[in-house]
Design a protein that fits this description.
By secondary structure, the chain is mainly alpha-helical. It has one domain. The protein is 81% helix and 0% strand. The longest helix is centred in the last third of the chain and has 33 residues.
Amino acid sequence: MLQNSLQTVSVLVVGRLSPEHLAAAAFSYMFAMCTAWLLALGGTTALDTLCSTSFTGSRNAHELGMLLQRAFVVLGAMYVPVCILWWFSEELFLKLGQEPGISHDSAVFLRCLIPGGLGYIYFEAMKKYLQAQGIMSGGTYVLAFTSPLSAALNYLFVYTLNMGLIGAPLATGLAYWASFVCLVGYAKSVGGLERWGGWNWYCFNSIGTFARLAGLGVIMVGTEWVFFILHYPFYLLQKH
């Protein structure tokens, strides 16, 4: 997955600063996984449900594009509470028993990651839009480019520009947006944008239905993760 590859590189780069910065980066990305990335992976399952049917059965050639626009609007709106949570996360971390230093550094890290998080959410939506049309390889090609780009940006921001810890989320966020832009460029080159149709107010129709599907998708993916976390220790015990 995109976020795993880019985050791993980011943690490795920023981890050279100090053990405390390594802990803050790893903890921040873990929290991002449980919030914004859960929204991206779960919310876009609504496109899995709707896009395939639209692509094969709709008489409107641009219905698929309307669904993508609806995803941009709904998931963008659902990301706002996540941004608020990230901005005020220091108090939450302290109440959860984290050390003050880690809580402060992680909160600063997440605040700097806020702009880039939306880029990842839109990347996932764009990927589902292409997959509904049978275009499966776009994400792989983009990842082959943005993974080394992310490593270079992280090193540039953290060390060359002496930005320290905050350089990592800024670099990773920029790589997320680069991934989205590159995927749009790939879609244009292979013909995947033919069903886009341009922005249209129609995308706000039935937005409540799409939001409910997206919310249920978030709950579904979240419960799968919780079940895996709870079940994994028993799996290890059975193996041994």
